[in-house]
């Protein structure tokens, strides 16, 4: 869903800080969540994403900072008083209640009349295609069905905001893909704002309107999936989201519109990035595997190397190439059935290049010493 | 909720549980004869205790009974747990259920039923009747302890042993028994303590020829105060602490 | 006792002479020392009292009728009352105790449970006797209160109904706490959070989520306390005097002193039936929440 130009802030987090036993889990975090968007909190375990979710839900209190929903301060409000609901990681269905009673629970707490409860529960169950399972106990359902009950139970209360805490992590791969599509559909139909927590970058990119990349309680980047993937704000995001080749570069000259960078002795004219540059500065040249071109060894341009691994992935052919200086390069090319020369044998010499303008530049980060490992499969 | 309230409640109840035990230990070193007032430190009640021949004999009887009851129930209970774990057979649920019922039954119900049986069959009330009775009420506890251990056991180990040519019996001896050893020891210690502590069943099935410690204590504490009971209680407490620590140590060490 | 799951590696007993021998042994033991004696008691309860050989024909229900005799009925009801108060007290003390215990960090929990079962491993007669030292007319509580000047005369505490109940609570409390602790330990924090998230306050969450999920533990605890609280005859013997008798005292007197076996047997069958009802309730409550907890 494309959020229109009129982005209205629904939930506003400002200066949120939370410590556990002296360890800072969230560090003065600011974030505005728009009405009706699907926003994902993405990060490795321990990055603070679950804590952030618990603060929004009200299960934890921030050490300082505030949370407000449509301008109303929620910071001191207990979870039961907040007009938002949670889909828990392990579903948290009440085992002593039927599916119907589970979904009806929140409405009973609102003291709704029985007729209304029945109608709304049936509607919610129909929405997740479980109307025939109302009398079952949760433990009689499959994992995917339990997941849908948990969603029905949360949305039946028509919350302004739905919090989803890694809701798909317990499902197997195929079911996860199905549920991803279904969650997107539900979010579109209901128009509820979804705050989704995951450590799976693929899931985050395919489902969200915006992605918040978190690390050590600090927002690393906030943007659309495309921005996060194509224009990572720093090395962490680049490494965490998708696979990336990092080439060490050195700025030779800075012109008006472009710059000249030396990469392994190759002079390339590149687009000028947003940050300040001066000649002689070291930079990282980032290239996604699909931006890499593998060329015949006779080709004039590019860097010499040889193929060390070939993996057929169906639609793409992934290669690992060792450059002559030992640098490892990942390349992912679309499979072309009509090209007989497309395939290379292991050990075969090739040349590696890319299309100018597809690269992304990041400044050298002094604090980050782990640049040595060029591919980081998180 | 007030944060300290749960902690305070825990501490209060622990305190109340241990007050009588503390009183017992302190008064066992009391020199005063009256039993209620403090008369200075003394070991006289320990002396009195060990000079009481009937008491010392009852102590030996009890130890011997507890030792044999624990051993027999561990043997039978351990093997039963193995059978329940390993084999498919008819009446398995009934067997499980029966052991559960024995464990939950009020002791007094077990006691009179055994008394009726022993008198009917003509088993003389004494060591043998006590042994049969004690093994019966210890049995389910041993089975439970060993089953708990077996439930977390890698099922492919017995198969690997059979695959490598061990017979069922050899496999049990070389693979299963070593695995359940800690549970067997813990079950044995539990049985030993249960037997040593039992009053209700023993009251019914013991005879005049074989007096055991709990019954000796029972006849002493029914009327008035006997300060040597404090000394005996302290000794039993220390003994239990050692046994329980041993059992916990065995169980936790084997998990690592 | 948990029924063991049928694993695919289980072999049939028919091909295993060693296993068969074990089963013959344990079945023999249980049939001879559990089933047969209990059938004997049922038989005894419908026979006639005989001073010489304990029992004789004809068969009749006199023993059960005698249970309804006002004299015994009073004792029974009084015993039931004391057992019920004991159970309730254990529940009221044990429920918050087990809850609090389950919230302590895991490492300390093990130690705390250890200290909970130390008394349970210590001779119960001796511990009951220690209560006597505390409750007696010239015992510790009275001495303390007198020397503080809070009372002028010793308060009579020993040989009262209260003393019996205190004794029973003291001996049986761990049996209430341990099953309760086990259900609280299994209670997933996520379910409590989900309840709050769906708009339930503390009280509603307690009523609709915590109580139903801990009910099996409550019933197990009740079963483990209520039945012994009717049977532990030595507690009234030491603390209660002659008027505060338990069913256990009646059974013991009838069997060992009055030699009225049919009556003693009938009383014990009433206890067994109580147990059966409680076990059934426990089973149903466990089935309601699904024996595996929740998936």
UniProtKB/TrEMBL annotation, chain B:
<keyword id="KW-1003">Cell membrane</keyword>
<dbReference type="Pfam" id="PF00528">
    <property type="entry name" value="BPD_transp_1"/>
</dbReference>
<feature type="transmembrane region" description="Helical">
    <location>
        <begin position="229"/>
        <end position="251"/>
    </location>
</feature>
<keyword id="KW-0813">Transport</keyword>
<dbReference type="InterPro" id="IPR051789">
    <property type="entry name" value="Bact_Polyamine_Transport"/>
</dbReference>
<dbReference type="InterPro" id="IPR000515">
    <property type="entry name" value="MetI-like"/>
</dbReference>
<dbReference type="GO" id="GO:0005886">
    <property type="term" value="C:plasma membrane"/>
</dbReference>
<protein>
    <recommendedName>
        <fullName>Spermidine/putrescine transport system permease protein PotC</fullName>
    </recommendedName>
</protein>
<comment type="similarity">
    <text>Belongs to the binding-protein-dependent transport system permease family. CysTW subfamily.</text>
</comment>
<keyword id="KW-0812">Transmembrane</keyword>
<feature type="domain" description="ABC transmembrane type-1">
    <location>
        <begin position="59"/>
        <end position="247"/>
    </location>
</feature>
<feature type="transmembrane region" description="Helical">
    <location>
        <begin position="9"/>
        <end position="29"/>
    </location>
</feature>
<dbReference type="GO" id="GO:0055085">
    <property type="term" value="P:transmembrane transport"/>
</dbReference>
<dbReference type="InterPro" id="IPR035906">
    <property type="entry name" value="MetI-like_sf"/>
</dbReference>
<comment type="function">
    <text>Required for the activity of the bacterial periplasmic transport system of putrescine and spermidine.</text>
</comment>
<feature type="transmembrane region" description="Helical">
    <location>
        <begin position="175"/>
        <end position="196"/>
    </location>
</feature>
<feature type="transmembrane region" description="Helical">
    <location>
        <begin position="97"/>
        <end position="121"/>
    </location>
</feature>
<keyword id="KW-0997">Cell inner membrane</keyword>
<feature type="transmembrane region" description="Helical">
    <location>
        <begin position="63"/>
        <end position="85"/>
    </location>
</feature>
<keyword id="KW-1133">Transmembrane helix</keyword>
<feature type="transmembrane region" description="Helical">
    <location>
        <begin position="127"/>
        <end position="148"/>
    </location>
</feature>
<keyword id="KW-0472">Membrane</keyword>
């Amino acid at each position: 869903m494309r959020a229109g130009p009129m982005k209205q802030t629904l939930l506003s987090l400002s200066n949120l800080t939370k410590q556990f036993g002296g360890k800072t889990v969230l560090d003065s975090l600011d974030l505005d969540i728009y009405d009706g968007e699907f926003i994902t909190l993405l990060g490795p375990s321990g990055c603070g994403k679950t804590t952030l979710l618990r603060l929004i839900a009200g299960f934890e209190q921030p050490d300082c900072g505030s949370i407000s929903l449509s301008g109303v301060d929620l910071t001191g409000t207990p979870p039961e008083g907040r007009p938002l609901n949670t889909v828990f990681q392990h579903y948290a269905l009440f085992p002593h209640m039927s599916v119907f009673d589970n979904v009806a629970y929140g409405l009973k707490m609102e003291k709704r009349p029985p007729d209304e409860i029945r109608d709304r529960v049936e509607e919610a169950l129909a929405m997740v295609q479980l109307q025939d399972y109302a009398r079952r106990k949760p433990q009689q359902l499959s994992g995917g069905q339990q997941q849908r009950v948990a969603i029905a139970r949360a949305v039946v209360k028509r919350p302004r905001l739905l919090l989803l805490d890694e809701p798909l992590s317990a499902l197997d791969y195929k079911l996860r893909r199905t549920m991803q599509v279904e969650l997107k559909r539900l979010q579109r139909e209901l128009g509820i704002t979804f705050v989704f927590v995951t450590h799976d970058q693929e899931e985050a990119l395919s489902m969200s309107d915006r992605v918040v990349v978190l690390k050590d309680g600090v927002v690393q980047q906030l943007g659309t999936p495309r921005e996060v993937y194509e224009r990572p704000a720093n090395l962490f995001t680049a490494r965490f989201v998708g696979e990336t080749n990092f080439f060490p570069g050195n700025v030779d000259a800075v012109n008006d519109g472009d710059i000249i960078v030396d990469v392994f002795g190759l002079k390339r004219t590149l687009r000028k990035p947003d940050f300040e540059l001066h000649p002689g500065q070291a930079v990282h040249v980032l290239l996604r595997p699909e931006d890499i071109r593998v060329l015949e060894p006779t080709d004039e341009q590019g860097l010499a190397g040889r193929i060390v691994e070939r993996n057929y992935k169906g639609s793409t052919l992934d290669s690992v190439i060792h450059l002559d200086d030992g640098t490892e390069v990942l390349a992912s090319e679309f499979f072309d059935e009509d090209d007989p020369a497309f395939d290379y044998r292991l050990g075969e010499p090739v040349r590696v290049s890319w299309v100018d303008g597809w690269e992304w530049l990041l400044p050298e980060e002094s604090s980050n010493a782990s640049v040595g490992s060029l591919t980081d499969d998180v | 909720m007030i944060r300290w309230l749960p902690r305070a409640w825990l501490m209060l109840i622990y305190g109340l549980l241990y007050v009588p035990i503390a009183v017992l230990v302190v008064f066992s070193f009391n020199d005063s004869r009256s039993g209620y007032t403090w008369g200075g430190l003394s070991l006289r009640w320990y002396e009195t205790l060990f000079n009481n021949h009937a008491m010392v004999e009852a102590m030996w009887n009890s130890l011997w009974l507890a030792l044999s009851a624990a051993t027999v129930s561990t043997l039978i209970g351990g093997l039963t747990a193995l059978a329940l774990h390993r084999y498919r057979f008819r009446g398995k649920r009934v067997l499980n259920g029966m052991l559960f019922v024995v464990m939950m039954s009020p002791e007094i119900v077990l006691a009179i039923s055994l008394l009726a049986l022993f008198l009917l069959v003509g088993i003389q009330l004494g060591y043998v009747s006590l042994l049969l009775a004690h093994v019966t009420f210890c049995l389910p506890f041993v089975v439970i302890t060993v089953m708990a251990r077996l439930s977390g056991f890698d099922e492919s180990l017995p198969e690997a042993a059979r695959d490598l040519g061990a017979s069922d019996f050899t496999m049990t001896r070389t693979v299963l028994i070593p695995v359940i050893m800690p549970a067997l020891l813990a079950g044995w210690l539990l049985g030993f303590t249960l037997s040593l502590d039992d009053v209700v069943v023993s009251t019914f099935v013991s005879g005049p020829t074989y007096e055991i410690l709990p019954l000796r204590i029972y006849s002493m504490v029914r009327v008035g105060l006997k300060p040597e009971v404090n000394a005996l209680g302290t000794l039993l407490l220390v003994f239990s602490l050692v046994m329980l620590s041993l059992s916990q140590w065995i169980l936790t060490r084997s998990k690592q | 006792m948990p029924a063991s799951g049928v694993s695919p590696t289980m072999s049939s007993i028919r091909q295993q002479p060693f296993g068969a021998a074990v089963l013959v042994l344990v079945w023999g033991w249980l049939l001879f020392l559990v089933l047969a004696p209990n059938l004997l008691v049922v038989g005894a309860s419908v026979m006639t009292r005989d001073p010489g050989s304990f029992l004789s024909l004809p068969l009749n229900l006199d023993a059960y009728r005698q249970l309804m005799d006002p004299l015994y009925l009073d004792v029974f009801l009084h015993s039931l009352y004391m057992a019920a108060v004991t159970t309730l007290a254990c529940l009221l003390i044990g429920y918050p105790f087990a809850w609090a215990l389950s919230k302590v960090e895991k490492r300390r929990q093990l130690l705390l449970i250890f200290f909970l079962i130390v008394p349970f491993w210590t001779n119960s007669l001796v511990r009951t006797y220690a209560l006597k030292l505390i409750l007696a007319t010239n015992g510790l509580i009275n001495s303390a209160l007198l020397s503080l000047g809070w009372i002028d005369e010793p308060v009579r505490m020993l040989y009262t109904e209260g003393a019996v109940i205190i004794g029973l609570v003291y001996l049986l409390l761990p049996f209430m706490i341990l099953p309760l602790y086990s259900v609280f330990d299994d209670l997933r924090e996520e379910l409590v959070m989900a309840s709050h998230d769906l708009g339930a306050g503390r009280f509603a969450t307690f009523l609709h989520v915590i109580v139903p999920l801990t009910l099996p533990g409550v019933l197990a605890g009740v079963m483990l306390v209520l039945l012994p609280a009717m049977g532990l005859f030595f507690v009234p013997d030491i603390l209660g005097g002659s008027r505060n008798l338990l069913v256990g005292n009646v059974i013991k007197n009838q069997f060992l002193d009055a030699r009225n076996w049919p009556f003693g047997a009938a009383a014990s069958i009433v206890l067994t039936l109580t147990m059966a009802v409680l076990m059934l309730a426990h089973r149903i409550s466990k089935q309601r929440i699904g024996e595996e907890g929740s998936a």
